[in-house]
Amino acid sequence: MDDLPPEVALTGITGLDDILGGGLTPDRMYLVEGTPGTGKTTLGLGFLLAGAETGDSGLYITLAETKVELSAVAKTHGWSLDALTIFEMVPADGLGEDQEQTLLHPSEVELGETVRDIMAKVREFKPARVILDSLSELRLLAQSPIRYRRQILALKHFFSTQNCTVLFLDDKSATGSDLQLHSIAHGVISLDQTLSGFGAQRRRLHVVKMRGMRFRGGYHDFEIERGGLCVYPRLVAADHEDREAGPPVSTGSRALDALLGGGLVPGTSSLLTGPAGVGKTTACIQLMIAALKRGEKASYFLFDERLPTLLTRSASLGMDLTPYIDGGLLEIRAIDPAEMSPGEFSGAVRASVEEHGARTVVIDSLNAYLQSMPNEQFLILQMHEMLSYLGQKGVVSLLILGLHGITGEVRSDIDLSYLSDTVLQMRYFEAHGEVRQAISVIKTRTAAHERTIREFQIGQNGLHVGEPLREFRGVLTGVPTFSGGGEALMMSRDKSL
Predict the structure, then answer these.
(1) What is the CATH class of 14-234?
(2) What is the value of pTM for the model shown?
(3) Cα 454–460–464 angle (5° rounding)?
(4) What share of the chain has pLDDT > 90, as a percent?
(5) Phi-psi bin for 290: left (phi > 0), alpha (psi -120 to 50), beta?
(6) Which residues pair with 439 in a beta bridge?
(7) What's the pLDDT at 407?
(8) Nearest-5° Cα angle at 39, 74 to 302
(9) For domain 254-423, which CATH number applies: 4.10.1110.10, 3.40.50.360, 3.40.630.30, 3.40.50.300?
(10) Close Cβ partners of 54 (under 8 Å, ≥ 6 residues apart)
C-alpha cells in the first residue's frame, strides 16, 4: 500500500481499514449498499463513533428509522450515542396538515423540501462525518431516474463544499444494481448475506470501487457482533514477508525423526492420513507436545471431537495437555463449522500466529473443515493460501485427513497431498491373526526420508515407533501384506491395548 493518502478517516472496523489500506479518503461521498439485515446501520453508527473518538463531530440523518430505534441498536453493542447528533426527517409527533410534504406523499415538492432540510441541518451542525439513511426514501420520492440522479448530484456537490465525509446507506430496493449511484460515489462498499442448507447465515462484503486508493479486492467474510462489525480480510499469503525456516526440530521420537529424515522443518506443513482410529490425532498431539516441551507456543483447532474428550484421552496416554493450557503455551479452540465462515477461521489462525505467537498449528481435521461447508467454493484455494501464509511465518503446520476403508481399498474424497510438504501415511495391517498399525512417509520436500514401513503402537506417552519392517509384499498396491515372522514385530507394551 504505497499510495496512501496523507490522512485517512478510520471506519472504526479494523478489518475494513485493513482492506482499504488504512481507511477512507476524507471529505468524500461513499455508498454502502446491502439488503436489510446486512449491517449497514451498525457500520454507519460505528463510523460516526470512531470519528467521535478522534474529535470528529457526527450527524446521523435518518429518513426511515427513529431515534429510539437507533438507540436500541446502539444499546445492543454497548454504545452511547450522546456524542452524535441524530436528525429524524419524519417527526416523532406525528403527521398533521402542516406535515403534508412528508415522505408518505411523494412529490417533487416533498423531494425538494427533503433535500433542502438535509442541507440545512448540515450547515447548522457543520459535522465532519455524516450518515444518510437511507437512499431508498429519496428514490421513492424522485419517482424517475433522472430526477433521482440530479438530486444525488446536488447533494454530492453540496457536501463537497462542507468538508465532511459522507456515507450514503442504500438497501438495494431498486431493481437490479443501481449503477447511477456507483458512478457518482467516490467509493462503493457492498454488503450481502446468504443462507446455506444448514447453519447460520454467511455475511460477506466487497469493495466495488474506491477512487485513488489501492484496496484488497474480492469477498471478505464478516460478522455482526457486540461492538460492531468484525471483518475478516481475505488472506493473501503474498502480503506477508518470509521468515527463515531454521533447522529441523525433533518430533520427540528418534525413530520418527529417522523416518522423516531428521524431523520437522519449520515453515512446512505435514499431512497425516489414515483410516479412523489408526492414531492420527495421537500422533499430532505427540508432535505438538515435543514443541511445547521446547517452550514454543502452539494452537490446536479441533473440528471432529469434543474438547473434554480430547483432553481426557490425551491424559490417559500420559500426554496431559492441561498444564500447557494453564501455562499459556497452548490454545485449543473447538470449532463449530456450522457457525463459522472460512474467512473467520483463517482470521482465527492468523490471530493464533500473530497474537498468541504459535509456532505449531494443528488442524483436526480437514475432512470436517471441507465437508461441513458443502456450499462453499474454492475452499482448497483458501487452504492453499493459509498453508502458504503459515509457511512464510515459519510455523510447523500439522494437518489430519481421514481416509475411507480399513485394510481394503483406502481412499479419500479429496486429494490434499499436493498442498503438503510432508505426507505421513498411517495404516492397519494383519499379521499372525492380529490387527497392527504401521506408519510410512510418502513424501517430504525438505529431506531424504526413509522409504520403509515401520510398525507403531499407541501406549503411554503416545506413539512408540519400531524398527523398519522389510517383510511386506504388495507395497505399491496400497494394501501391503506382511509375510515375515513374529520376531520382527514389536512386543505389546500394554496388554490392555
Answers:
(1) alpha beta
(2) 0.86
(3) 10
(4) 61
(5) alpha
(6) 426, 454
(7) 59
(8) 100
(9) 3.40.50.300
(10) 10
